[in-house]
Structure prediction request, 87 residues.
Amino acid sequence: MQIAYRNIAIDPDTVRVKVGSTIKWTNYDSVEHNVTSESGSGGAYKFASKLFGEGGTYEIKVTKPGIIHYECTIHPASMNGTIEVVK
Prediction:
């Protein structure tokens, strides 16, 4: 599953994937972003990428069902998303 960081926004910002999927974020902006799970994501998934600039990527593999809420901590108002992991 590909997720784009573009124009200080996430596209798509809500996705549904199956357990075992790999989710990859790519930054198309000229400013740095990160991918950080929000507390309250059920505790199933906790992750925090380093900052990555234009052309940079970050990926995770999802291994159990659950809801993941995440954001770019630099731009949380416009860059927050949800991933639903299903069996």
The radius of gyration is 12 Å. The beta strands are 2-6, 9-11, 14-18, 22-27, 36-37, 57-61, 66-71, 80-86.
